[in-house]
Write a structure and sequence with these properties.
Number of domains of chain A: 2
CATH class of the largest domain in chain A: Mainly Alpha
Number of strands of chain A: 8
Helix content of chain A: 40-55%
Number of helices of chain A: 15
Strand order of the largest sheet of chain A: 1-8-5-4-2-3
CATH superfamily of the largest domain in chain A: Dehydroquinate synthase-like - alpha domain
Radius of gyration of chain A: 19 Å
CATH topology of the largest domain in chain A: Dehydroquinate synthase-like, alpha domain
Oligomer: homodimer
CATH architecture of the largest domain in chain A: Up-down Bundle
Distance between the termini of chain A: 35 Å
Shape of chain A: globular
């Protein structure tokens, strides 16, 4: 078994300004890849303060799309390839961080085209990446994964290069300004990462340590997802549970629910976390009962059904139409997500996972 | 709070041969730093197989002393500085791994003298280090610390450079050939690392996760230390608990018991783990009872006294003479080990820690 967390992680209030000097080691000029909300939640202002205090020049790209497509990476490569960028800072949710990793690859190879992102002969090289999450789901700040939308195959897919951020700066206070439905959906994404890492062929004593601590931390704040008020401590715990969940998937990878969710999001625009939430119950129904019981124990749910109803309430989940579910089901057949699934993946079982709510 | 485990860790049977190809990334010529026992326990043969299979040239230095002195580092620098070594492999217990880190620094700076090892202006640079433990105590394979004997100040002290091994390869089977008293002593060293990381001013949710998992893993095998037979699973768990304990001290650093132990070992030659064992009871007697109770719960001891008697039995501990204890006590006054101690460190308390058995 194998353990590796190459990213240096800091979690504290005012984390970005306090630890800004760490960014100097990556160079003198940064490209910030972010969306519009980072201006509203205070994170962009903090980052600009940190960079200025440390005499690091920077440019801001703030047009990150939700579920960014390959085309957006190429647009950024073309706009910034002559700017002598030393490192890339992904500031935002999974979309911004995943985009920043792909951009860091394509600015390292300024002459390469879009095909290079999905070239199996990757060298896993890029400009250094600093990741600053402002949601509590993706865990992308500690994973090597960058998921982009691919219109050519009508789904989302991870690029081939494995790019771990060198540094992750986590400050729960950014969640205070995050709309409740985003906190809720992203935190169900984190829950999904924990479930799919725990019910996973690659799970080891190392990954279980991280995953179990993730469940414990998540369970401390889960009830707050039903309310409207998050304390500073809740916010740190939401951020931390997503981070543990990221460390977990960095070792195990995600499984069937994430695979199916990509089809849901691509076809309906339903946010990623909510899409992931649809399939957790079905996945757990097919899993080893001993492992499932341990999850229930760690998270404080009395039964799988209580967990299912909780997710439905937190993400305001409605039924998906049959045609879409059929697409999800078909996308799983022969998918790479089957490799880490520890139970039989006959078509009958895959149907059970997909058609569960 | 802060989390960083830059070392890539593998733990499995036949780990060294299975993962030998990973060493190719560090260069074409290695220096193996080891002691005599690696020839006996099969680890040196495994390592040579792995290097040959991957066309990596190597030289073997197998004269590592227990608690290696600075002079030994300089002797190796002088013997191998013209050999164009690309990376250093520390194979053995803490002595071999710690020595390999210091050697990796001095071969990176072949023109520097011994003073450089304790120069505060270190750049933390060295040749890459691969660490292969053959005991179950030090955790040096995942820490940045290299402790050497310093005859000039009559104790042991960590070098200034912080050198994390790039790769750690753990195979519990080497413990099968390890004399029982070494397994016992080193595994009490690991227990001490866990205790001193848990009762520590720098403890965080991140470090506690690792420390608690270390206690859980250690408790699975602690009873076997009283017997004479270790199964393959016991061996892997002994190795793993020491590894968790290493990750824990990599974040927190050791505290009073380790500080006092250096004086004991320097003056009497009592092995490190046993020397560390002397002071665990005294340290815990002064600590926050809530944290102490959690340790008892995780390790399955009914009381601190049961834990104390267990350590006495496992390490065959006798009383230390008063004069030596007085030296230990005096060495702690003003020591850097006080910085991480979370309780008051008045002379009265320090006496309590030292004079406890």
């Amino acid at each position: 078994m194998f353990f590796k967390i190459p990213t240096q992680v800091y979690l504290e209030e005012n984390c970005v300004v306090k630890n800004g000097s760490l960014m100097k080691q990556y160079g003198q000029k940064a490209l910030i890849v972010t969306g519009h909300s980072s201006a509203a939640n205070g994170s962009l202002a903090d980052l600009e303060t940190a960079l200025k205090e440390n005499q690091i020049k920077y440019l801001v790209y703030d047009k990150t799309l939700a579920n960014p497509p390959v085309e957006q990476v190429m647009e950024i490569q073309s706009a910034y390839r002559d700017e002598k960028i030393d490192f890339v800072i992904g500031l935002g949710g999974g979309s911004a961080m995943d985009l920043s990793k792909a951009v860091a690859v394509m600015l390292y190879y300024p002459e390469k085209g879009a095909d290079f992102l999905y070239d199996p002969a990757t060298e896993n090289k890029s400009l250094p990446v600093v990741a600053i999450p402002t949601t509590c789901g993706t865990g992308s700040e500690v994973t090597a994964v960058s998921v982009l939308t691919r219109h050519d195959i009508e789904t989302k897919a991870a690029i081939t290069s494995r790019i771990y951020p060198a540094l992750a700066l986590l400050d729960g206070s950014y969640l205070k300004h995050c709309p409740q439905h985003i906190v809720n959906n992203t935190s169900i994404d984190a829950f999904g990462h924990l479930v799919e890492s725990y019910i996973n062929r690659k799970a080891t004593a190392f990954s279980d340590m991280v995953t179990e601590e993730g469940f414990r931390t998540w369970s401390k704040v889960k009830e707050t997802l039903l309310g409207e008020h998050f304390t500073a401590e809740d916010c740190q715990n939401l951020m931390l549970s997503a981070n543990y969940a990221g460390m977990a998937i960095a070792h195990c990878g995600t499984s069937l629910p994430h695979g199916a969710s990509y089809i849901v999001t691509y076809n309906t625009g339903i946010p990623h976390g909510k899409a992931v939430g649809y399939f957790q119950y079905g996945y757990l129904k097919c899993a080893d009962p001993a492992r499932v019981n341990r999850i229930l124990e760690l998270t404080g749910f009395a039964s799988l059904e209580e967990m299912r109803d909780f997710i439905i309430r937190v993400c305001k989940i409605d039924r998906l139409d049959e045609e879409l579910l059929e697409k999800c089901f078909k996308s799983l057949i022969g998918s790479s997500k089957l490799e880490v699934c520890p139970f039989d993946t006959s078509e009958e079982t895959l149907r059970k996972v997909v058609y569960s709510l």
